[in-house]
Fold these 2 entries.
Entry 1:
Amino acid sequence: MAQSEVTAQRAVAHHPALAHHFENLEQQREASTLGMWIFLITEIMFFGGLFLAYSIYRSWYPQVFAEASHHLDIVLGGVNTVVLITSSLTMALAVYHSQVGNQRKLILFLVLTLLLGLTFLGIKVVEYSHKFHDGLIPGIHFRYDGPNPQQAQIFFWLYFAMTGLHALHMIVGAGILSFLIYFAWRGKYSPEYHSPVELSGLYWHFVDIVWIFLFPLLYLVGFHVKG
Amino acid sequence: MQQFPSEFKLMPEQASTMAGQVDALYFYLVGITLFFTVLIVSGIIFFAVKYRRRSPYEIPRPIAGSMKLETIWTLIPFLIAMSIFVWGAKVYFAQYRIPKDALDIYVVGKQWMWKMQHPTGQREINELHIPMGRKVRLTMTTEDVIHSFYIPDFRVKMDVVPGRYTQMWFDATKPGRYHLFCAEYCGMNHSKMGGTIVVMRPDEYQAWLSGNASQMSPAQLGEQHFQNLGCTTCHLNGGRDAGGRGPQLAGIFGKPVQLETGQTVIADENYLRESILNPGAKIVAGYSAIMPTYQGQVTEEQLLQLIAYIKSLTPQGGSGTAAASATSNSTSANTNAGAQSSGSPSGQRR
Amino acid sequence: MSTAVIHTPAEAAKPRTTYLNAGYTLKSWLLTLDHKRIGILYLLGVSFFFLIGGIYATLIRLELLTPQGDLVSAQTYNKLFTQHGIMMVFFFLIPSIPAVFGNFLLPIMIGAKDVAFPRLNLLSWYIYMTGALFASYAMFAGGVDTGWTFYPPYSTNYANTYVIATGLGIFIAGFSSILTGLNFIVTIHTMRAPGMTWYRLPLFVWAHYATSLIQVLGTPVLAITLLLVALERTVGIGIFDPRLGGDPVLFQHLFWFYSHPAVYIMVLPAMGVVSEIIATFSRKPIFGYKFVAFSSLAIAVFGFLVWGHHMFTSSQSVYAGMIFSLISYAVAIPSAIKVFNWTATMYRGSISYDSPMLYAMGFIGLFLIGGLTGLFLAALGLDVHVHDTYFVVAHFHYVMVGGSLLAYLGAMHYWWPKMTGRLYPEGWARFAALVVFVGFNLTFFPQFILGYLGMPRRYHTYVPEFQLLHVLSTAGASILAVGLILPAIYLLWSLKRGPIAPADPWMATGLEWRTSSPPPPENFERTPVVTWNAYEFRPQEETEIIGPPSEPDVSKRN
């Protein structure tokens, strides 16, 4: 912490974005970054409950899970993985350009990230509707012709819960990006003050990483265990 | 309720072999609690009186701490805690290491009653007669929610969980009538889900048994279900060698079974249960998943009886009345549960 | 007797601005971003829900006077104990000390103007109120009868009460807890005043840091668990349903993964309060400061590894039981360290018997018994007998009521002058502390005996031989109730009639006593620079008040 410089910085600390209870922008940035990291930890714990349920049921019914995972579309899932990783790249570039103060490129990469995010959600909608047509929506209408439909239902249940929760985070992320684009367009961010972009970047990468775990666990598990 | 003593007590009756062990541990802990409570409370009172404030603005000399003291009061509680842990674990093992040579009683809980069946067929509800001085093993499940079988005077308790079997055992030491409680909250009449354990001298118990002996034993009933459900069509004695489409069941109980996935499981009650209700979950190596599920077709009690029947089977076709008819056609084929003996036949996968 | 600042007549006539008189409109309270006002808002909230939980408790104790269950029906009784548990655990104990006193004091104690995220702080109060009102609505509309533990399959497939609505209330309130924890962690990390190093922090702050870690790490798991219960109830996903291939015991693992650490959310802040009080009223630094500080963290960390000790009879593996038992004993050690250090702090101190100190000493005694009886429950073989009996009920009430509630009352009396600027009648306060102590012991000590005799918990009716002990317990509960109503009366009375409190009525050390009572909106006139350690007691003439000039403090006590 930069407390020794507190008095020195107070004179210059009249940035419009500085909240009254902080001594200076540095302290404010530090606080919001730490806050974001802690928020992401709570997110990990939140998803953690589902990952735990997944691991337990998969270790109980490995074959059923392998079998059921063949009903997922690996091509669409794979494309989505690529889309999402690319969006992380564009997000990272957006953060970089906010740091150097290149407003045009910042907006460009934010828009690209948003478009990639929406592409991901679009593909997800297509996948969900396929599942609906195949009668693989657990609880509501579930017709599974493989062996052990009950345990397969748990798999699909987990599939929808985990990808659904992830998609919800993507939707929230898209909303955040829209705000960022608006404020970037209004010229609110500068090399001195760009923590909203940076923190949204952290969030976006987190959502991305969750998918990196979901994809193999849900789509590729069938290749691991012989069906 | 006049059978129960109603005078004031501090301790429950000691009516099983376990009670003394648990109480000894209890007294050890009561001793520790008394010691530390007296030590700390008298310390606080002593300091509070001795060092009471004498003038409003006095400031005593600060004392930062003492590494020596901290070490002492970290280590001593730690050692005491470990002694409790070891003792507690020892008793726990005694409670849950289920003896083999015991009287088998099957228990099914449901909202809000306990249904019990003796190995000789007698059924009881909310009352269980058992002989004194003989180990009794309960195999328990429930038709609905979680219950817990609790006999305070025996110091034993075990949750009864839907979808699986749990076991507990005890060895009663005193004739008498003892409370049976449900200890896991199970809905509206949870507090009424209880009854009485009646411990009888062995001769009395025999007399009681013969007075109620009109019923078939669980294994005999299980054999009936085995026929009625058509299990005999596939589960021939001799398994595949005898032309059966399912594994042979005689003698598999308690033995390891090789699965198609390469894993090995012990064929215990829970495995048999799963194989009846959910046959696709664990396929025996060399067999295919053709068995339909019997979920919804058998009640919890029938399931326990089926399992009792399978337990009673021996490959030789010996053991008791029940096994005789099912194994009558192949007394010589001693292939012992087909699958496991041949050490995972490969290449027979679908 | 102090360095009274000389006021010009004009200055003295103008009342100084405090957080209380900064605005009188409803809006100035409901939209406030001031951590102190938010603390007061929480105080109103938790007091209200404590009252409701207390009414449920009263009805439970009345019902248990007789073995037949003649006051209320079985169904009603089941709702009463469920709702008592839910109200007290989720809407009183968990927010009580952190959200009221933590919010009010933590920023002042570290010399900050506010918490790091004031908007989030206000939001968390609204979330809490929404969740709590939602749960209350569910309780009044139809009630819930699953026990506060929501064990499936009863909660998912059998109960036909308002399980989802209540669960949703707890789910919502959980986010309030997460946000408070997040706010505190960030505040403690980034907002400390110059010179306020980690080892100069009051132990109250350390305790809240540890608490916040649990809130942040544990609560999301509870949230997802309750969500799963709701889904299981509505669409039958089968995750806890054995008929669909699921496992009801999995719920117990998930639930206790949060709910055991939640016990430490309730008791760690209480330990922080007691550290403050013991130091102040012994006028000595806490013996072994670092041991007490790090034992809080140790409790928070180990607390996450012991959830399975709630499940020794649940059919989990014997070896899992052994590991959970072993780690449970590891948790006992840091708690023991604290108790020894508090006691040692009193050695050669200057001990006064002011009401906060009475509560703190009561806390040590009762928490000690609560903790030691925890050893009974962690002992595998013994737990089999006492699990799910009144022994457990007595044990956790000794920790939750004898521990957390007594500390909460102690905190209330200790910081009341700071929060309201008024002193309360000390004689009544001491009397009430005594009544609470006696009533509490009479209520819950008989329950240990009941439990060992084998009386299961959550029983509407019981066998007649348990009646005597139940009658004793109910008698104790009525005394306890008197002890709880008394402070409500004289504290409210003091708001209008109490003598004006000086900045530091106790000659205490924390930064909160270096500003005026009640504090100004920004806490201090200028950012304090800390050059002293925690609990460095000095003559009052040498301590500087870093706030606006206080009211002339001639009304000093002692």
Entry 2:
Amino acid sequence: MPKKVLLVMLLVLLALAAFWFWPKNETATVAVDKPQPEAMAEPRQTPVVPAVAPVPIDQYQQEELKQSFSLLSQAYAADLSYPSYSRPLTSADHQLLNPNYFDTVALPLEGGASASLVLPKYRFTYPEPVVFSLVMESLSPQQVKAELREQQSGKVLAQADLTATPDSTEWPHQFDGSENWDGAMELVVLFEAQGKTQQLQTGLDYSYPVATITGIGSSSSRGSDLVIPVNLDVKKAGMYRLRANLFTENKQPLAVLTAEGKLTEGSAILDLKAFKQVLQQQAGPYWLGTFVLELRSAMPAEATRYGDSKEPGFVVDAIDFGQLSDEPFVLNDEEKQRLQFLQQLAGG
Amino acid sequence: MKLLKMAAAGLALLSLPLSAALNGHTVVLVHGFQPANLADRPTGADVTSNGADYWAGFWLSRADARIDWPSQERITGKIATDYVWPKLQQLSRSGSCNNGCIFVSHSTGDLVTRYIIDNQALWLKNAGLQPLNIIASFDFAGAGGGVELADLAVNVAGGGSWTDAALRAALSLWLGQIPTPSNIGVLNDLRVNTARQLASFPTSRVPRLRFAGAGSDFLNATGPFLPGTDDGVVASHSSCGASAVGSFDSCSANVAFDGKLASQSSGVKAFMPYHYPMLMGNDYSHSGLIEDSRDGEVTAANANANYLNAEALQFQTYQQKRGWWIFASNYLLVSGSDRNSMSSLVSQAAD
């Protein structure tokens, strides 16, 4: 390439760079002959000279942050327009739709290789096996061993030599569950490749169920709520929290429902309630699933324990939608105070 | 440097007002992970001293109480029993939160705060005490969604000859050392899955206001090991409060970390329950978010779609004479961020 062309290109690049890094504070002006919004913005480029005298951008400082808090208080108020026991659910609510999701974090290795432990979920419940797979990229170990350990004591609960899939990219395995396993566990995999070893590990939870959902009773209407009684077989007494997702018959998400109550051993019922506004005018039938049953921690150092469900979900009978009243939900005092606080920040 | 910080902490303590409340509400600080604790293993007064030191840059003199905890321990273990629980009882007995408390957290303090929000009412009731009335939390660089570097640190601590050298270097920069299996402590809780499963959805609807940065204290050495935009330690999926792990480049669908108003295809669009993105700073690093020093401009993460309308903003954004119009962009910047740190902006707005 001729030197002149290179020189011209260099000059153009320098001009672009100078333009890009031009100080921003020399460019911020706002026209005053138009109504001013609460939001503020600052351009990066030199503005056209306005027809009227420019006003320093700082003039609107307070408006800006108030606008942010105003949007926040509106968003929070919208969230509080539903009772805490019945929150609307959409397909975007990944966490609520997949409360037992396991995210894989790959360990980068020398030479661009990587190793990952892949699990179908984070929390397993007896008698489920602990299913997992070592996934390798750009490296094929000759020997792979796995151990399941109690996280607190380090005690080894199970161990195995793993065998690769035919394409030698995965080393799947499962440890059969034991009724003696309960609590935080560590899955540790040790592999050897080209004479060098590497350890890989991840945490998981294994629960011996403290209660089991055995079914649901007949749904009914109570004020503005659809009430769904959930039958439980309780093995360990205490304060329980039950969460479940309510879907349309076609499995479109409607609401995440929460019920809490102190339960004694034996048969028990927790009532889930769906506020009329989350039902989107749908009279059912519905599908109730994605159960998370927790025995709450009663004091510090006492771990949360989990229950299970005999079935992944249950059909909730259709109701006479007209029986649900339109009475609004009333915030409790703490929620009112939280909302007022945010509204104060917004200058309201 | 540490001596200077401790001196500043001491001075700040001496000048602590009788009540440092924001808007009449008691302010409780919950600090984050302190890497030096893994080797030092502080207890008792040293934990308290470290806690004061941690917040000395800005928030110490604006707080009424702190929950200090050592990083060599686990959240559901000794951190809860020996450090969180005594302070919760003290706050309840003193009635400090009767008019509402604001929790200000940084980094792992976000996760500790979520654990507190989920459990404090039941624990205190069972102990015959009044539950705390927590009206909001301000979460700077929140690590409640987990930290990929913690997953990697735990793996590297386990040992191996295959570990990527750049990763070891990045972890050394962050932690000041490569930990051993016996001194991982709270890094266990910070692993992405463990963190996201801990008290993931408290019943209490405390609004959690998120403040996120995109700078780095480590010359971007840690960035390649974190998904999307990060602040050197925490990825945006965590600091923004995203409902899922992902490669996010903004806490907003409408505005970038640097304030540029444009649709963000990699912006967070779904959040954990009652998590609200507030402010973003492109040049604020993980630690810089709670200091008093200004690190560039700050943008509002909760900008609504109307901001995308250039006319509505009333700003002229290009110079016709120069002919650079194709490069013109609108930027949404928080007023005062040209003079104040992000923490200062938040404190002023809340007071």
